[in-house]
Amino acid sequence: MVVLPQDIPLDVVQTVVNFVKSRHQIFETPITMSMHDTVGEALSLIFKRAHGAVVVLDDDGRPAGIFTESDAAGFDRFTQMQNVMKREIFSLKDGLTPEQMFDSLSEQRLSFAPVINCDGVLIGCVTRNGALRSTIYKPALDAKSRLMISVAVGINSDPGIRAKALTAMGVDVIVVDTAHGHQTRTLRAIEDVRSNIGKVPIVAGNVVTTEGTRQMIESGADVVKVGVGPGAMCTTRMMTGVGRPQFSAVYECAQEARRLGKHVWADGGVRYPRDVALGLAAGASNVMFGSWLAGTYESAADTLRDRDGRLYKESFGMASNRAVRYRTRSESAIERARKELFEEGISTSRMYLDPTRPSVEDIIDQIVAGVRSSCTYAGARTINEFHDKAIVGVQSASGYEEGRPQDTSW
């Protein structure tokens, strides 16, 4: 489940929530263009999807052609789609099971196909790997069988009123979010949000102590977000000396939350599947990560190439100077200048796309494989059993290094 940042205007949030709630559980959202759009426009969009294809539509919304990056060879950027697209289209009909879609694509030796309804109108697209994943994964759905979504609110500027507006839009989970969660203002914000949204789940953070966990739960939080400083874009520990190793923090906070009948999310510090497994083993009910997904086709930033031709995207921390400038754009020049003096995040970082795992789904595959295997080693069938059966020990830096694979001989 995605958590939208707290700084997005409400009208934009409404658009995003409506879009997410309208998405199909199996079909992907295709990139679509008209026959009169240009190669340059297509190339600027094509890296927003891992399947690397644009569906060209006629005036009635029916697929008229398929465009891939290789089709642009030999044409200038102003050439229209109708002159470069492939006109031979293999489409799948709505109503097929994921198994049937996978078999059809395999028989045709294709990795991608548009999906059409009985009138031939495009309603989505599917990849062979996507169909396969749909036989394994089940998305998080609300009571109306729509995809779930969460939105963060800050602790300033009437968080309760904003949270009430968000729940009216159909937001499923409210996250009361601030870097330093164990303070009176955060606890009052949780109480304010709770009084405005009733029984809608509240996630609040961030803390790294049992005392902070207990006070947040007593203020009305259902889930406590644990983590100060482990994020890839965060400089809090280097700037302030404040923070705590993530596993230790999650382990102790999860025990306190469980004692009170609530939960924790491990927020940050995730670089490998092992880190997700460790967060769950420490007692977290969910593990949050962002930077790992920043270097994927689907992330919001533009796809760029370095001098060696490698694809990357720029990422930045939400407490960085860059983010502060965006948040304070409506304030006076001197107020903005004052706030921009202080930052606890990286303003620009290159997140390279892994050629073998360039999409969000690829990373999820990798994580699920690691977590499933971890549960097998622990003899656990469920996450709750994993909490109980995982044996916790201390590992030195040399012990960690011993466990790293060697990609070349030593």
CATH class of the domain at 27-133: Alpha Beta
- Biggest sheet features: 7 strands, parallel
Biggest sheet: strand arrangement: 1-8-9-10-11-12-13
The third-level CATH topology of the domain at 27-133 is CBS-domain
Low-confidence stretches: none
Into which percent range does the helicity of residues fall? 25-40%
Average pLDDT, rounded to a whole number, is: 90
Give the N-terminus to C-terminus distance in angstroms. Answer: 42 Å
Number of helices: 16
| Strand elements, count | 16
The backbone outline, from C-alpha atoms, is globular
Structural classification: alpha/beta
Strand coverage percent: 15-25%
CATH architecture level-2 label of the domain at 27-133: Roll
Considering the protein shown, what is the CATH homologous superfamily of the domain at 27-133?
CBS-domain
The gyration radius over C-alpha positions equals 23 Å
